[in-house]
Protein 1
Amino acid sequence: MVIDTPGLREIQLWTESDALDQSFEDILKIQKLCEYRNCSHHGEPGCAVKEALDSGFLEQGRFLNYEKLIKETEHWESKNRIHLKQKRKQFNKQQTKKMRRMIQGKYGSGEF
Ligand SMILES: [Zn+2]
C-alpha cells in the first residue's frame, strides 16, 4: 500500500481519534455517569471515573493513557477541524480499516 507522505500524519491522527472511541469504550461509558457534564475527573463530587478508579473497576494506567490521548487528539483537532473533515471524505475505506488494525494493535484494545 502506498500512502502519500504529506497527509500521513493527519490521517493517522484522525483515525486515532476514531479508534479512541472503541479502545476506551468502557471509560467513555463511565464518564457519562459523572454528575457534571464537563467533569475533569480530578476530584469533582459525584465523579464516576474516580469511583471506578477507587474501586479498582478501572485501571489507573488505562485512564492515564486515555487522558493523554484525548489531550493530544483534542489539541490537534481544534487546530485542524475543517481540514480534518475534508480528509475524512477523501480517505478510502479500505485504508481506514488497515489503519485501525494498526492502531488497535498499538493501544491494545483486547484487554477488557
Ligand atoms: Zn468525572
Note: The first helix runs from residue 5 to 23.
Protein 2
Amino acid sequence: MSGSDFQVSLRDLKRTQGAHKSFRVEGTYAVVAAAGLAVLPAGRLVVAEGTLEAVGDGVLVTAIAQAEVDAQCSRCLTPFVTPAEVAVQELFVYDDRVDEFDDEDVLPIVGDQIDLADAIRDAILLDQPLIPLCREDCRGLCPRCGADLNTTPDHQHAGVVDDNPLARALADARRRG
Ligand SMILES: [Zn+2]
Ligand SMILES: [Zn+2]
C-alpha cells in the first residue's frame, strides 16, 4: 500500500453480506491534480465521510467528499476558490475474488485496507464544471484590450465601431439580432 492519508481499515468489517460500518478520513495529497481549469493543490485538506458495506465479492464504499478546489474563470481568467462536495462510490473486490472479474478496473482489497485516495480525488475533479465561472453573470474581458469588464463596466473604446470594419460588421449583426 502506498500509505496515503485516505486508507480505511476493514479489520472490523465482517465479510457477511450486508455488514457495514461508517468511516471518516481526512488528509492531503502530496502532488497537485488538475482537470481542465480546476486544480486540487498538494497539501489542500480533503475530508470524506461515508459507509463501507460488504457486498459478496467485495466492499462497496459510499461517501461524500469535501474540499476546496482552485479554479479559474473561463471568461475573465480570475482565479477563485470553489467548495466541492461530491459523492464517491467505489467497489473494492476481495483479493481472492479478483480473478472472477475480467474488468481491469476492479480495485483489489490488499490485506485488510483499502485506499480511497484515487477515488476521492477523481470524484472531486470530475465534478468540476468544464467552463468554470467566477460568477454566473461574469462579463469577461474586453476582446479588444483585455480589460476586466466586471471591474470596469463602463469600459468602451471610442470610435471602435467606425474605425474597425470587423467591429462594425459585428455591431450590425447584433443590431439585426
Ligand atoms: Zn469571471
Ligand atoms: Zn477594451
Note: The pocket of zinc ion (ligand 1) is lined by residues 73, 75-76, 78, 133-134, 138 (CB under 6 Å).
